[in-house]
DNA sequence: GAGAGACTACTCGGATACAGTCTGTCCGAGTAAATCCGG
DNA sequence: CCGGATTTACTCGGACAGACTGTATCCGAGTAGTCTCTC
């Protein structure tokens, strides 16, 4: 059970977009160059974000993406679910129903105890991811990345943002 | 990111094995019949458990599996890691290193802030799974399953346990 | 009745096959800004 | 100088291909009880 690399890409792209001034758009091409990723395939991840309403897009030259909401309202979980789908990490196929010892036509009530534990763990994971927003991530990044690189990157980005 | 069905199978099989009297073994065939699963493929999951040392096996007739440790010492996480591997659910490919604005030969220290959040969420998931043992699961199951089915199942099982 | 050998039922590991997902590429349609051209 | 047509640069969506993983089956090798056969 490993998250696909598109999740990592989407998170990094959102981190960049959250630092973009209001109303500016950044193209897939620029995002791909900045992270050294295949432009066409990265585009799929961004389309997922767009479809989930996390990101807004404009066509034409100087088009591209920007966040659709304030960075403080976008969580890690939003981004991950947009890319990876919002299903649970554990699906219960109710194999207890195959027990040959059960009376004919027996219908169980309630969910399988094993599935409940798995779902609680899943929920713990989601709770953590729901608690971190892009705004908080931006603060951490700004405090950790050497100022010259941080500023240089955003000069580079603004140079390409429409 | 969905756990494979072998995880579900392994958990159910361990639940049954934890109810087995000391020293008795239950065969793959019986476990497969009980859950309505393909015997050969289920065997792969059980082999994983065996390789991880969670389960002990004997060859020959009346051979099969039993738990290698007391049920109170086997956690959900043990079983899941045995089947699914013990790697993290998020791998950081350090794509920030591809940033064209970084000075030549720049070497970062510390891990990516994005990866750290993902790993904390992963750890929250693992912590929950580490906190539930097979012994606790057995108690819940016994309290939830109607006594006639519970007893009938274990009669069926003991009938086939060597 | 005792011991040796054959038999049986099981685990283990490898080989194989198939389907689905992940990764990646390519191309055409649509859109909006910039550019060009005729009046 | 102005307005319409063309060009350009981008997104979007679908089609496609290759690699990898998950699911499933089959078979031979090895092992430990059981059964049989012989003395």
Account of the 3D structure:
The structure is a homodimer of 162-residue chains. Chain A has 162 residues and is mainly alpha-helical. In chain A, 53% of the residues lie in helices and 5% in strands. The first copy, chain A, is built from seven helices and two strands. Chain A has helices spanning 5-17, 28-35, 39-51, 76-84, 113-130, 134-144, 147-160; strands at 55-58, 64-67. In chain A, strands 1-2 form a two-stranded antiparallel ribbon. In chain A, strand 1 and strand 2 form a beta hairpin. In chain A, helix 1 packs across helix 4 and helix 2 (28-35) crosses helix 3 (39-51). The radius of gyration of chain A is 21 Å and the shape is elongated. The model of chain A has no long low-confidence stretch (mean pLDDT 92). Chains A and B meet through helix 1, helix 2, helix 5, helix 6 and helix 7 of A and helix 1, helix 2, helix 5, helix 6 and helix 7 of B. The first copy, chain A, binds a DNA duplex (39 and 39 nucleotides) through helix 3.
């Amino acid at each position: 059970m490993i998250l696909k690399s598109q999740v990592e890409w989407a998170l990094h792209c959102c981190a960049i977009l959250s630092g973009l001034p209001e109303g500016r758009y950044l193209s897939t091409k620029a995002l791909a160059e900045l992270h050294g990723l295949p432009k066409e395939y990265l585009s799929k991840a961004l389309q997922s974000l767009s479809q989930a309403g996390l990101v807004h897009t404009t066509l034409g030259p100087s088009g591209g993406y920007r966040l659709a909401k304030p960075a403080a309202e976008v969580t890690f979980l939003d981004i991950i679910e947009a890319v990876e789908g919002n299903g649970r990490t554990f699906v219960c196929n109710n194999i207890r129903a195959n027990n040959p010892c059960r009376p004919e036509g027996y219908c169980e009530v309630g969910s399988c105890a094993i599935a409940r534990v798995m779902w609680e763990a899943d929920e713990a994971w989601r709770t953590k991811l729901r608690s971190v927003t892009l705004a908080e991530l931006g603060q951490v990044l700004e405090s950790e990345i050497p100022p010259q690189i941080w500023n240089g990157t955003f000069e580079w980005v603004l140079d390409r943002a429409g």
